[in-house]
Amino acid sequence: MLSHLLHQYLTVFGAVLTLVTVVTTSTYHDYCILGAGPGGLQMAYFMEQSSRDYIVFERENTTGSFYTVYPRHRKLISINKRHTGKSNKEFNLRHDWNSLISHDESLLFKHYSKEMFPHADALVQYLQDYHKKLGLNVQFNSNMQNIRRVANDSSAGGHIYTMEDDKGNPYTCSKVIVATGIAEPNIPKEVPGMEYADGYESVSINPDDFEGQSVLILGRGNAAFEVADSIYGSTNVIHMVGRSRVRLAWATHYVGDLRAVNNGLLDTYQLKSLDGVLEAGLDEVKLVKQGSKFVLQFKDEEEDSMFPLDNFALREPYDRIVRCLGFAFDSSIFNETSKMILGKGRTKKFPKIDYDYQSTNNPGMYVVGVASHSLDFRKSAGGFIHGYRYTARALHHLMEWRYHQVPWPSTTGPITQLLTHIIKRINEASGTYQMFGILGDIIILKDNGREYTYLEEYPINLIHRLEEDAGHPTTRIIAVVLQYGANFSGPGNDIFRVDRATGEPSEAHTSNFLHPVLYYYETLPTKSQMLRIAKDEILPRPKLMHHIVEDFLTVWDGPLSHILPLRRYIENVLSSDMRNFFSEDCLEMALTQKTVPIFCEDYLGGEGIPGYRALQS
């Protein structure tokens, strides 16, 4: 027995000694954040506020280094809406696409630019001030390499992460948060002749350099149209080639699609002014140099063919080819043993992560910022500042519970205040508004429906893990989510059709535009139910569901159109009368009926104003 205890002691002592040895030979932090762009800084803010041991490694000598170069023509396409006519801070943040979350009122982007589409230098200055004013722990000129997972029995999860900077200095981290963005130019290796193309990252931004030239642009995203817009007053002709049709942001409601501020080339195409846009997969073509010119040909086409396709749309040679094929995730910073798996299909440029933002093959390694957009790609705003500032906060809450036993922030109140609470949130909340269909409010019904606990902006794809990921005991719940209708839009759809919207509460379920939807579950959905969600749905079928009719002003406070149907829904959920009454009505019902509504129960119990006793004391 004694020898067994001695063996256990030596085993534990040896494990602790191993961790101490690792830490003493390198600099240790609980959390290592890679990248001081908007995503990394946002995460650093939450770490700073919760007094965690963290450090941000930035390879350049400034925060937001990506924006010192991009966009190349220096005009951001993120909306800087400085005025809303409202004074509510949370409502105003709904329409502020550039600010990060903080407690400092001076760190709102509206103080840095008056332009609707600001100059990128303003964002660089903003991020520098955000870092300095909030005292975030950023270490510059630290290009981290050889990031690898190392087994360690004494650490949480049974492993730690080690890495070195470009000077050879070693670092050890319990958790790694990757905020490096998607910044590696995408250069397809399977396209012969791609070396003849000028990359978006290096092409001239001087229109005079394109004077009188014919230009072929590969790609049809915002970068491609940004280049076209800057030079189409100088060129002979601009042709643009991409694998899919043009997707306009105002037609798809996806902010990453082509924005109106960049789409001038569509005018010159459709109004017969020589420029053009067409579809072709780049895996089918090659770029060929002919003298000082360049041509695009199909791979299986022989240059000396006796029967060339004499009406091929791109048969004329070009003076210049510009590659605007987007960016990809840079995996070179990882050791081969710890590289994050990349996604597949249209998310292949992103690292593969679970809905808790954790790498699928590297436990303890998380992703924030643009690189976390795989979870809502082409669905919501998670690839942009006005989206990932909220997903970073959600990740922070998840980590606070997982590693520090701090439950998801919540408020608790009497059930009589639930209707008011919901109305306030759907009309003000910015996180659920921008991360629609991804983050939602969760209402936990307690004490047999007499009390509720309200959790804000929880990842709805983790709703089946609410107890284990948020730290709140759960029975019945209501999820409040903002979402578009199933057939709200799409490339080629007429989104300006006459019947595009409804204002009739009884037809709320047919609403196309963004509107609140409530899901009531008597028990949490199971993992298998989450896996079987239909393509046009975002959550499993609930016990009771309620759509609040879409509103032109996105203000859901109409007594008859919005509030009354919502109150009746809550009454159905609780099987209780949720109306408010005058004091004399409560007294009359108490004298003439066996039961009285919940509001009257509270009133007759001396709670005319919920929380009155607390205010009195």
TrEMBL record:
GO biological process terms on file: ERAD pathway
Q: What is this protein called?
A: FAD-dependent oxidoreductase domain-containing protein 2
InterPro entries recorded: Auxin_biosynth/cation_transpt (IPR050982), FAD/NAD-bd_sf (IPR036188)
Enumerate the GO terms in the molecular function aspect. flavin adenine dinucleotide binding; monooxygenase activity
One Pfam family hit: Pyr_redox_3
Q: Would you tell me the Gene Ontology cellular component terms?
A: endoplasmic reticulum lumen
Which organism does this record belong to? Mizuhopecten yessoensis (Japanese scallop)
The entry's keywords: Oxidoreductase
The answer to whether UniProt assigns keyword Oxidoreductase to this entry is yes
